[in-house]
Design a protein that fits this description.
By secondary structure, this protein is mainly α. It has one domain. It is 75% helix and 0% strand. The protein has eleven helices and no strands. α2 packs antiparallel against α3, α3 packs antiparallel against α10 and α7 runs parallel beside α11. The longest helix is centred in the first third of the chain and has 35 residues. The two termini are 34 Å apart. It comes from Orenia metallireducens. Keywords: Membrane, Transmembrane, Transmembrane helix.
Amino acid sequence: MIHAIKIFLSGVKVALASRMAYRGDFIIRLIVMLIGDLLFPMITLLIYQSGASFPGWNLYEVLLIQAVFMIAKGISFPFFYGMVYNILNKVREGTFDLMLIKPCSILYFSVVSSFNIEYIGSFFGGVTILIYALANLQIGISLISWMNFLVLFAFSILVLLSFTLIMSGTLFKWVGNSRVYEIFNAISTFSLYPNTIYSKAFQNLISYIIPIAMIAFYPAAALLNRLNSGVFYSIIVCCLFFLISRAFWYMMLKNYTSAGG
């Protein structure tokens, strides 16, 4: 465990040092990414100001869902989402071989060597919107609701990790396929809005087959006391989704052809 922590801290240190070497570029990218994340809350604000709305949901409830998404992204993207970009480049350049000879788990090393602080702005932006939404909702949130939120939020991170494993795993077979980002962005968009605005069939799809709803909807629903019994099935699906994605990652790793192969 101590060895694993040392490897993690070393990876973070190297990542920070490399980004701080070009502070101007880092700050610009940080701001651009934050603006991109704020786009959906701004669109939601415009929708409600125009008199339209999502049936059964007020402005601040929808903003709460989007805030949870931003917080989840602000945690997962810096810590492990970068492995998609990292593996994409290393496999294309033929330097992934060097990672295979490291004296630790290849999956763990792929994660810790991909730390990217540029996405940290999403976390702070999400927290700000969360506070703003809760302040305007003016609802009492019990300790149980907060505990439910934290548990479901942990599964939110697990789902994002699962998607990361699937995306990065495909890169061992289809080298240089940068389209995986676009696929994830398109899929994750459905988690930015209330689950109930979709058809029943689609709700079942994003809750019990591909658990996209767990990324933001269910954690936010916990704070709003709007959870239903289906959340328990979704939790089971999240665990299975992670196990399948992990198995998929290792299966695709076997398809990797080294630079000397």
